[in-house]
């Protein structure tokens, strides 16, 4: 080695040294952090342990790839072939809406299904039913009962939502009662995808005052945005970790689902 170094001229030595330094820096450099994986780690600490390279590591040792390596996906591909990295590409904005969502702005509709199936269970195999609990929905307004998952404390959280909603004036009752459903083990109409209803982590409020993009879609043009749900209701759900389908371009104003990662929340 020493002999070799003696034969190198100074310029060559410096060039070689720089090349070695660059290579070692590259080798030591951590992979780009994934905001999506980091938000999930914060939101679901009971389930998730850490990020290792391109793996999201669960507490039971299960590993899921964060990126599938595909950097450009069109909108339909994002929905049909999402990876973990894609789930938070579109930021969800809590608080009063600032107008109609932009074209295809659907924060939360991009879901990596193996992630939610592992967390809440696979409803086709009875994995979700095992975690259901019955709760009373707005009992003072005769809201009846709902079955919702206990995973991630969703049942407790929805009960807390109900307690806060019950403090609103009675004029709000018509939007909330009767609720249109929670658990439903079926695919989203016209797709091969599952909604958060398949995991019993979502609720539809009364359909009587709600709007759904498919009802308004006419002739293949842009979808006119329509909403009749007061923000007071949305705010209470957001405060407890639920996002609202009324903030989607493909809106579904009756729909709320538990997605703390989209609200920047820490699981507790
Ligand atoms: Zn729904």
UniProtKB/TrEMBL annotation:
Residues 190-258 form the Peptidase M15C domain. InterPro entries: Peptidase_M15C, Zn_M74/Hedgehog-like. Residues 1-29 form the signal peptide. GO terms for molecular function: peptidase activity. Keywords: Signal. This is Peptidase M15C domain-containing protein.
């Amino acid at each position: 080695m020493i002999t070799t170094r003696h034969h190198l001229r100074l310029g060559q030595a410096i060039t070689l040294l720089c090349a070695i330094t660059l290579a070692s820096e590259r080798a030591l450099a951590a992979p780009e952090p994934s905001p999506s994986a980091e938000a999930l780690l914060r939101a679901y600490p009971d389930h998730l342990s850490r990020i290792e390279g391109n793996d999201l590591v669960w507490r039971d040792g299960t590993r899921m790839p964060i990126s599938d390596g595909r950097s450009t996906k069109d909108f339909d591909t994002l929905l049909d072939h999402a990876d973990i990295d894609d789930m938070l590409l579109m930021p969800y904005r809590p608080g009063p809406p600032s107008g109609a969502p932009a074209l295809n702005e659907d924060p939360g509709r991009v879901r990596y299904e193996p992630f939610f199936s592992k967390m809440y269970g696979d409803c086709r195999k009875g994995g979700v039913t095992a975690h259901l609990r019955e709760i009373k929905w707005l009992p003072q307004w005769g809201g009846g009962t709902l079955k919702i998952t206990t995973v991630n404390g969703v049942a407790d959280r929805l009960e807390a939502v109900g307690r806060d909603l019950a403090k609103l004036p009675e004029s709000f009752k018509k939007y909330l009662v009767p609720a249109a459903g929670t658990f439903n083990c079926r695919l989203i109409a016209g797709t091969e995808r599952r909604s958060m209803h398949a995991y019993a982590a979502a609720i539809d409020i009364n359909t009587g005052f709600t709007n759904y993009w498919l009802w308004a879609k006419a002739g293949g043009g842009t979808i006119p945005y329509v909403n009749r749900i007061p923000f007071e209701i949305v705010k209470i759900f957001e405060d407890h970790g639920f996002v609202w389908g009324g903030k989607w371009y493909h809106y579904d104003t009756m729909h709320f689902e538990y997605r703390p990662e989209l609200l920047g929340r820490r699981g507790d």
